[in-house]
């Protein structure tokens, strides 16, 4: 099979590498335009672009695929991309975390299938890994689905489940699902090459939407329960990083665990802050032990090391 691949971050790059290593002919890759990053805000290529260029695969980076865009620059790039797709000999387009909407004009050229990091129809949308951890889901997985104009609404071709470990962060679960997606897309295309796959319509019951993560969500509210806060901290690691204020200073909290029973202290009150007990904070219900923190301009540190440069005894998180 000849495969056009559309994707942008590391999650997608792993799938592209898996398809390439499996021997699929990949005549063209679509990825997002280079973006400014780092302190110097220099332009950086996506992980997918870096892999494609390193292996001699042509790369196309349109701002949009919507030929009816009101922006003349985007519309021009979309028309050029559309013509390039029409001129390319391919059997299927594989999409993974591309970041651009595929319009009907693209979907109608050849079959498009998507690697989605959830058990559809749960967590359709942009941030399925974050939201699964935040919600306390016990399992997640990868769904390979046919694409249609709706948001992750297409019929499912293959699905595989994985357990969410109590210590999983978005970073660790991302890596697990990226590896699973890379393996599953190869298996899917090989089955498609051998004959038609059964496409299972998604059930109407159980639909949830994984809204894009905003930086505003990073602020912790200790009037929530310790269980909720612990999940949120893991869900927001590595982005955007959970935050809490103490004496007007914003502290990032990268690791925590819910412990113990309810405290009579006010939510946010630091109950302990020493090498023996660690950093223990009262919540609306339960208590939270903070295990990894970062002050402004500093490094991520275990609680004991953090306390050497930022004492928290008798303090209260806002």
Description of the structure:
By secondary structure, this protein is an alpha/beta fold. Helix content is about 30%, strand content about 25%. The protein has eight helices and 17 strands. A seven-stranded mixed sheet has the order 5-2-1-6-7-9-10. Strands 12, 13, 14, 15, 16 and 17 form a six-stranded antiparallel sheet that branches. It has a two-stranded antiparallel sheet with strand order 3-4. Strand 16 and strand 17 (about 300) form a beta hairpin. It starts with a strand and ends in a 9-residue tail after the last helix. The model has no long low-confidence stretch (mean pLDDT about 95).
Pick out its properties.
7-stranded mixed beta sheet, 6-stranded antiparallel beta sheet, 318 residues
Task: Detail the topology: elements first, then pairings.
Layout: E1 2-7, H1 10-21, E2 25-30, E3 35-37, E4 42-44, H2 47-54, E5 59-60, H3 72-87, E6 92-96, H4 104-107, E7 112-116, E8 124-125, H5 128-134, E9 139-146, E10 156-163, H6 170-194, E11 209-210, H7 226-235, E12 242-246, E13 249-259, E14 270-274, E15 278-282, E16 287-294, E17 301-302, H8 303-309
Parallel strand pairs: 1-2, 1-6, 2-5, 6-7, 8-11
Antiparallel strand pairs: 3-4, 7-9, 9-10, 12-13, 13-16, 14-15, 15-16, 16-17
Helix pairs in contact: 1-2, 1-6, 5-7
């Amino acid at each position: 099979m000849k495969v056009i691949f559309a994707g942008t971050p590391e999650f997608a790059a792993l799938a592209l590498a898996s398809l390439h290593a499996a021997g699929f002919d990949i005549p063209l890759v679509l990825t997002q335009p280079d973006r400014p990053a780092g302190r110097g805000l220099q332009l950086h290529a996506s992980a997918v672009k870096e892999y494609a260029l390193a292996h001699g695969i042509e790369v196309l980076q349109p701002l949009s695929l919507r030929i009816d865009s009101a922006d003349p620059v985007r519309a021009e790039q979309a028309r050029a991309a559309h013509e390039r797709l029409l001129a390319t000999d391919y059997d299927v387009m594989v999409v993974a975390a591309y970041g651009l909407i595929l319009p009907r004009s693209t979907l109608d050229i050849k079959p498009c299938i998507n690697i989605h990091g959830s058990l559809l129809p749960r967590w359709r949308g942009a941030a399925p890994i974050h939201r699964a951890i935040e919600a306390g889901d016990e399992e997640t997985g990868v769904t390979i689905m046919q694409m249609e104009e709706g948001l992750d609404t297409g019929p499912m071709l293959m699905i595989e489940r994985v357990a969410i470990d109590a210590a999983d962060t978005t970073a660790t679960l991302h890596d697990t699902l990226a590896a699973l997606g890379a393996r599953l897309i190869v298996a899917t295309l090989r089955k498609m090459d051998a004959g038609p796959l059964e496409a299972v319509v998604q059930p109407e019951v159980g639909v949830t939407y994984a809204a894009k993560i905003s930086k505003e969500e990073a602020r912790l509210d200790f009037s929530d329960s310790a269980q909720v806060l612990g999940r949120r901290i893991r869900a927001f690691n590595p982005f955007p990083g959970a935050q809490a204020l103490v004496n007007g200073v914003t502290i990032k909290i990268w690791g925590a665990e819910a412990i113990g029973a309810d405290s009579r202290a006010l939510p946010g009150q630091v109950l302990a802050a020493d090498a023996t007990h660690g950093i223990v904070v009262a919540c609306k219900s339960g208590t939270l032990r903070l295990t990894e923190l970062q002050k402004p301009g500093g490094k991520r540190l275990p609680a004991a090391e953090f306390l050497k440069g930022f004492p928290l005894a008798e303090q209260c998180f806002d």
